[in-house]
Amino acid sequence: MRKPFLSANLVSVFATALVLVVSSGICSLAFAQQELMSSTPKYTSLPGEEYFDFGNEPIRYIENDRVKLGFNLAIGGAVVYLEDKLNNSGNMINSCDWGRQIQLSYYSGPAPFIGPNGEEPAKQWAGLGWNPIQAGDCDGYGSRVLQFEIRDDSTVFIKTRPMLWPNRGLLAECLFECLYKLTDNGFELTATIINNRSDKTQYGGRNQETPAVYTNAPWYKLVTYLGDRPFENQPVTVIVDKNDGKGWPWLNYYSPERWNALLNEDNYGLGVYQPNSTGISGGYHGGDPTKGQPLGSTHTATGYIAPREVTILDWNLTRSYKTTFIVGSLEEIRSTVYRLAKRDLSATPSWRFDVDRQNWYYRDTTDEGAPIQDSLKIYLNETTPARAVSPETFWKADDAKVLEIDAECLPLDDNNDVAQFGILITPYSPADDVDYFSWSIEGVVNATADRDAKRKTHPVLPQISASIPVKFDSQRHVYRLKLDELENYKGGMKQLEIVLPQRAGKIRLYQVRFTKD
Fold it and tell me: How far apart are CA 124 and CA 106, in angstroms?
């Protein structure tokens, strides 16, 4: 998402660093103008589309005894107001520019993205590629609300035609649908992207913000759990605190309990729980002097949380996620997450590919694309071993002693002999006990030195490798690998990669799962 405004003499330096950010799929910079929120949004339109007429009341609210939630219909229906009434919080959400708020943001290729009539992106944003966001673009054009419904006292539905952030006045070939539902201590967001792009290229998976969340300066303290004993009530970790010089550049880290919170000095604030996302970007911009200060929603100082999940955005993809927002004390936030996690998470990962990719993605190949039906149809690469990569998650080796791969190997030649799947498992490492800068620039809070020092004291452990013989006989098989026989397969585990045979052919992947025995 867009990040805080930077002085002109730093723009060229940060633009260079943007290349590093985009290559990893994470957008973490902002140059948007402060004055956008005080000006009237610009608009563009598509022929035949009817937009919701909000009249003279662009901001609409719903509330219950605990929570008040507000949406700005002049900027795509993004959330601009969240209040914990029980704790007299006032508005917690920052709206300094169109890239703040609580809002949807997606990333795909190509980079740079050139519009249908040759519309070029702003130079500093060219590396982001195709980037529709809910509120508006870098030039002040607001995304257009097509439909707004208050369905009952606690539920709102908003459909939006988003702007492409980098391209100035260019509407995206997609729709956003958001269903907001108040809870006893927060709200749930079910967010859906509906793509209808004219460019049918399958671009690689990119980190998506699910969603992006910006708070005002009083909520500066970034807290989560870092460690390999999730959901055991272990002590939390304060990622950003007062007078620690941290927060900007944004930090990347691994959060196995899938929640993060931005709190005030009394440890009250806003928690974000996203069950699909252990990878997090977060931080605070504004410097130590502004942390905890009573600065309003139009001030540049802001806290930030973005759960991340890697997703391939097909030209015709429809995909949803659900994120829960929790207001209150740190204890209330974490206890609520623990209750929800019992519903959402299992001890052993399992992915069934009957209707979607389950956030799996590829290296050095593609598949047949959406819609997914019955299985992933993955093309093999004759020159490079292609890889199918699972989403990052967490499991304990003792709970998952066997790996099962339900697959069919289809040769495109007469070579029907035995090949193999390479298996790579990423273990939990000492590196996961700390946060890392998502990118670094010399002279900015010693980011490079800090990163290098952490790499020495908290190394990344090597992947655990094995192989499974497979048959290219066009028959469906369940291949099993006993993991407890592998050296170093112990403790916490994070991710699985399947290295596919280097040859002509195709793999139909039906299911991948871990079992206890």
Answer: 18
Q: Give the Cα separation of 159 and 272 in Å (integer).
A: 22
Rounded-to-integer distance, Cα 82 and Cα 277, Å:
23
What's the token pair of residue 381? 């690469």
Residues of the chain with pLDDT under 70: 1-39, 415-416, 437-448
Residue 477: both structure tokens together: 């098989």
**Do the Cβ atoms of 253 and 224 come closer than 8 Å?**
yes
DSSP state of 444: S
CB 440 within 8 A of CB 508: no
CA nearest 487: which of 425, 406, 439, 412? Answer: 425
Burial grade of 490 (CB within 10 A; 0-12, 13-18, 19 or more): middle
pTM value > 0.90: yes
| Amino acid at site 156 | V
DSSP string over 49-112: PPPP--TT--EEEEE-SSEEEEEEGGGTTEEEEEEEGGGT----B--SSTT-SEEEE--BS-SS
pLDDT tens-place string over residues 191-214 = 999 999 999 999 999 999 999 999
Q: Measure the CA–CA gap between 346 and 327, rounded to whole angstroms.
A: 25
The CA distance from 177 to 77, in Å, is 10
Distances (CA, A) of 318 to 195, 198, 315, 367: 6, 15, 9, 17
96-155 pLDDT, tens digit per residue, is 989 999 999 999 999 999 999 999 999 999 999 999 999 999 999 999 999 999 999 899
